[in-house]
Every structure is written in C-alpha cells, then in structure tokens.
C-alpha cells in the first residue's frame, strides 16, 4: 500500500453559461442556455445556467422545446475563445499550488495536494482555490476531496454549485452504497442494464457482488467498477496524461436531421480534414478508422475498419470513412457524424509496407500533399485546394470536440 493521497476534483459549475454571465453581468440571475445553432429551433442545448435548469432546461433538449418550457430563456451561440481563455486561467490558478494538476476536460481537472497539505489543511486550500476562481474569474466551481480520483470526482458531484465535499473510504458504505448503481461515476445506461440483468441495482450490491461473475459478464471494466464501488482507485494524478494519445477524432452535430447525401458527404469531408490536421500536429498516423452515426432517435451506430497501412492524409481518411458510411447507412435522418483514427503511432517510426497496388499512387501523391502543407503554412489555410474541395460551402460547425482542442492547447503551454 502506498502513502495516502489527498486529491481534489475541481469541477466548474455550468461552465459555458457561467463564462457568459461573467463576461456580461446583465445575464446574471437569468435563464441562459448555450446551443450549437440557437437560431435553429431544432438546435441542441449544450449547457444551461442553474436558473435555466430550475425551469426544466437540460442538456440535449432542443431549442424549440426549451423555449416553449421557458419563454424567457436567453439562448446564445458558444464562444469558444472565451471558454478557452477562462479555462486556461482556471488551470493557471491550480498550478500555483502544485504541478500535480491533471486536466480532464475544458472545465474539470484533478489536483494532488498531498505535499502541499503537509503545511496547510486541505479544506483551507480548497476554500482558497474556490474563492480565488470566484473572485478572480467570476466563475463558480465545486471541489471534491478524497483519497483517490474516484472518491474526489464523486464528492464534487454531491454539492453544486459552489460546494466543497469530503468523501473518505469510511463514508462509502453509508453515503454511496444505498444509491442506485446508475448514480455511480463510470456507470452509464448500458452498463446499468447489464448489472440489472445480474440483479445488481445499487452501488452496495455492486460492491458485494461476485467478482468472477462481473468479469465474465462485463470484462475488466466489471472488476474495475466493483473496486470503485468499494472506494478503491489506484489511478494517480498524471500531469502528462494529456500527452497520451490513443486515438484522434472529430464529430459534429448537424443543424437538421439530415438525409441529403451531398451534405452528409460534405460533412465527412470537413471531419476528415479536421482529423488529418490533428494527426499532422501530433505527427501521428493510424491503422483503424471508425465512423459514428447518430440518428434522429438518438440511436448510435458505428463501423470500423483496420487497414494494412496506417493513414493520416485527409483524402485517405475521407475515402475510408465514406465507404464505411455507404455500407452502414440505411437512409434514415442523421443528427451526428464522427470520424476517429485509432491504433495510432508516431509517423516517423512507421515503415509503410507498400503494396504493388498503392505504391504508384503513394509515390505520386505524397510530394503533392507536402507541397500543399508548405503553401498553406506560408499563405494560410485554404489558399490552395484540390478540385474536389472547391466551392463547397459549410453551414455546419464542428463543436463537439472542443474539449479535445483545448487539451491540445495545454500541451503547448
């Protein structure tokens, strides 16, 4: 057993809406929601202020329904420059206390204050951090305190907004075990249904369940969840975790439930370009491509393919993605599309096994793409385009991977 740790989970409250209220004090105390396409009544609510939530507004509600429920709701477009700036400022405050800070997303992160707490009480530090973020950034946050990540994360969810909650291992039986298993961090609807089929309905029942049966039915994740239900979590706060890339992807929610094949193909082209850009920045390529399709009824479908040679270029990503899409799509309206490249590796370390079929095309195209990259670096994005890309107007914005973009920025700081 290692030495006991003291870990905070800092969770910004209703982050996007709170940032908007901080920038515009006239919005304080009012029902505010952020939507990807606020002018489209079928746009989706991304987040909302606590005032809006009190009136029944929730994430994923469409704008039209939200306005019917709350006619005075103020619906804003997301301003990612503001959110990025506020998030960086928040993490800068955390790093004034210790370097042991692990960003999880744009609005939450872990901080290991074990060493710092030898000189100051953890509650004193938590209160100071919370008040500094409030006074310096005008943003509310909740802080969970625990001996590990799971308990700290669970604690931060217990009191919002502006809560500070301590959750010790000895509290687990009393505070967590009576709760429904769906309330547990890391358990979604699918896992909850699988556990219900095993007659496991509460966190306590999960904690005391048969480990072998869980492993058989849920694999390693079942064993992991059982450990968490008992208050155990061996994960360390890792400031370098944002450098560990297992996959690179991008997804976008469409403004309408779309069936127009040309618009869907255009969307895939933009997604392929974004994924290729991210791979280029990371100097990565990958051998597995996956697509995500979410239909109008919120059913998710995915298809994947493992390739002989790794890919990283837009044209290759697009070709593979669109082929998967045409095989998978049944013509029903689509709400969201996504592309992910996984099994990634450093492009410098890849010895491509060129086949007779792809050698000629690879040799012909590769210098062209290098030249395009150089021209765009000098004259700007889009200064040169392949014929297929010209005159395609974009009405969609890819917003759903903004947190991933933010984590990319952190690496450069």
TrEMBL record:
Q: Per UniProt, which keywords does this protein have?
A: Cytoplasm, DNA damage, DNA repair, DNA replication, DNA-binding, DNA-directed DNA polymerase, Magnesium, Metal-binding, Mutator protein, Nucleotidyltransferase, Transferase
- Pfam families membership: IMS, IMS_C, IMS_HHH
The stretch of residues making up the signal peptide is: none
Q: Name one GO molecular function term.
A: DNA-directed DNA polymerase activity
Q: Which reaction does it catalyse?
A: DNA(n) + a 2'-deoxyribonucleoside 5'-triphosphate = DNA(n+1) + diphosphate
State the Gene Ontology BP annotations. Answer: DNA repair; DNA-templated DNA replication; error-prone translesion synthesis; SOS response
Q: Which residues form the active site?
A: 108
Primary localization: cytoplasm
What's the cofactor? Mg(2+)
Which top-level enzyme class is recorded in the Swiss-Prot or TrEMBL entry? transferase
Give me the residues that bind Mg(2+), please: 11, 107
Spell out the subcellular localization from the entry: Cytoplasm
What exactly does this protein do?
Poorly processive, error-prone DNA polymerase involved in untargeted mutagenesis. Copies undamaged DNA at stalled replication forks, which arise in vivo from mismatched or misaligned primer ends. These misaligned primers can be extended by PolIV. Exhibits no 3'-5' exonuclease (proofreading) activity. May be involved in translesional synthesis, in conjunction with the beta clamp from PolIII.
The protein here is known as DNA polymerase IV
Q: Which organism is it from?
A: Ureibacillus manganicus DSM 26584
